[in-house]
Amino acid sequence: MDISERLSLNRNFINYSYRDEMIADGIENCIIAVHNFDPAKSSKPFSYFTQIIWFAFLRRIAKEKTQAYVKYKSYQNMSDMGELFKGDDAGVKINIDNEFMDEAVKSFEESKKKKDAKAKAKRTKKGLEAFMEDETDAAEKAIDEDTLKELHYSEEDAVEKD
Prior knowledge:
The chain is built from five helices and no strands.
């Protein structure tokens, strides 16, 4: 518990409003993974649990960013449809023209596109897709070689005619 508490005071995590949830996630993950620690492989349990807590914190931050994105995006969609209360009847006022909200939505969507593009590029084709792609590549290569040979022969013919 002390490791999680002290790590939350690190400059990377100190300014988050959900530090308590981060600490709780870190402790929970340590309890789950305590039986996986093998003293034969490492004699440093402190570093093992610190890494577990660190990645728990990163997962919590990602979850909170996703939740904030959903919240802000729903506010924007509701304002587009005109369904938000103006504050007179419900006592709630939401500033939809908030630049922070727009920037948060924009940055989340951009990072999502980058991750998807990276995952798509990394994704390997399996089974029939890979076989068909190999066949297509081989056929295209053969066509390219035949085209080059035809061009080469047609150039030789043109030179002989002159």
